[in-house]
Amino acid sequence: MQDIVDGRCGWCTANELYIQYHDQEWGKLATDDKTLFEFLVLESAQAGLSWITILRKRKGYRQAFCDFDAERVAQMTDDDVERLMHFDGIVKNRLKIKATITNARMFLAIQEEFGSFYNYTLSFLPDRKPIINDVRTLSEVKASSPESDAMSKDMKKRGFKFFGTTICYAHLQASGFVNDHLVGCICRNR
Do the beta carbons of residue 89 and residue 60 sit within 8 Å? Predict the structure, then answer.
């Protein structure tokens, strides 16, 4: 895989859905909690799978999990879990479905404590500001960081599931708290 292809980070250029995601969302700072919850759901569903698998099922996740409304997801029951185990629009993994419901409850608790999940996330960043990494090659992009280690550890202590440091780092990248667009990428300085 090349580092920069057609002016973009090389990881995204093999698929039109990846290109669209890269150009319009990845690394763009998300400040609203609904978007942050959506990324949290999608990233935790991705654990052990390729990201393109989850992107292809994003519409299904939106339908299955109440348009990513954390309050509604937090109220889901075991009956909903059973229903979703037969829903083709998502990855049918019982532990991940249950984790999404648990994570919604924890997400709401964080909103209550910090005022927003956005504020909570900023609390792990130096000076409460997004991190802009100076990466020139794909091999320089990290899989985790001290910030993702600390945030993941805190989230695990609070009861979150499927949100280890690597998934947490991917969440920080996706939601723009970490900018890992390569130097030379058309989306780096937006």
Answer: yes
DSSP conformation class of 142: -
Q: Where are the beta strands (DSSP E) in 26-145?
A: 131-132
Ramachandran class of 18: left when φ > 0, alpha when ψ lies in -120 to 50, beta otherwise: alpha
pLDDT of 189 strictly over 90:
no
Has residue 178 got a pLDDT over 90? yes
d(CA 42, CA 5): 26
Residue 190 in this model has a pLDDT that exceeds 80: no
CA distances from 173 to 72, 93, 138, 157, 167 (A): 26, 25, 14, 22, 10
Residues with catalytic roles: 21, 43, 51
pLDDT, average across residues 85-96: 97
What lies within 8 Å, CB to CB, of 119 at 6+ separation is none
Q: Read off the pTM.
A: 0.95
Phi, psi for residue 159 in degrees, rounded to 5: 115, 5
